[in-house]
Amino acid sequence: MKNLLFLTLVAVAAPALAADLKLPAVHGHRGSRGTVPENTLPAFEAALLGGADVLELDLGVTKDGVVVVSHEPKVTPERCLDADGKKLDKPVAIQELTLAQLKKYDCGTLLNPKFPQQIEVPGTPMPTLDEVFEMVKKSGYPAAAKAEFNIETKIYPYEPELSPSPEEFARLVTDVVKKHGLEARVMVQSFDVRTLRAVKKLAPAIRTSQLTYESLVDIVPALKSSKVDIWSPNYKWITVEAVKEAQAAGIKVAPWTINTKKEWDLAIAAGVDAIITDYPAALMEHLESLKTAKK
Fold it and tell me: How many domains does the chain have?
C-alpha cells in the first residue's frame, strides 16, 4: 500500500514541481558511485566537482583501529585487486588487516557493471576517514567549503567479529570528527541504533540518522525514541504522509538511493529534505533546471 501511495505521486509530480516547493540537499552516494569506483577519494572529488552538498560514505575499522571507508566490512573481489594487481580469491575482513596491509589493495581499477559510466582510477587505495576530511579541506572546488558528511557505521549484530563494539566504533569515529572540528558538518547514519546512541553520548552536536530498509509501522515514535535527527528510508517506502509526520516531529527525511529524474521528482514532490544519489552532478543539474523553470 505504501509503495502504491508513493507511485501515485507520478500523476502530480510534474505540476507540483512547478510550484514553490523546497528543493532537497544532494548527497553523493559513496561519493559519485555512478561515475567513479565507490568510496574512493576520486569518487568524493567527483561529487564535489558536481556540486554535491553532502558526501555519503561508509566506514569500517582496521586491525590497528583506523577508521577507513568501505561499504563492506571486507575487502571484496568485486571492488579491489591484491597488491600484485590480481583478482582476490575471497573477501578479506578489514578487521584482520592493519592499515599498512589494507593500503596495498587496488580499489580503483575494477568497474561496477551496474554503472556503465564509471571510469577506472588504477592504483587507488581504500581511504581513511581522516584522508577524506583532509582532501575536502584542501579542495579547491567551491562545494568543498560547505560540504557536509553523511557517514555510516557498518556494523552487524549477527557478525560481531567484523567490527568493533558499537561503543568503540562510535568512539573511533567521533575522535576523527573532533580532530578535524567537523561536528557541525557531520551526520552519522546506521541501521544499528546502538552506534547512533553511542555517538550522541560522545558528541551531542553530531546529527544521527536512522537507516531503514522496509516499511515500519509507526516509524516516527521509534525515531523519536532513538532521538535521531534524520530518517533515511529506502526511497520505495516513502509517502507524503510519512514525510510530513517525520518533519512535524522535527526529524528530517533523506531517502536512499535515487537515480532517475522520475524518481527524483517523486521524492521532491513528497517534500523530502535530501536525496541520496549515485549521480550527484546529474541531480544538481536537474535541480538547477527546476529552479530556472520556477522563475
Answer: 1
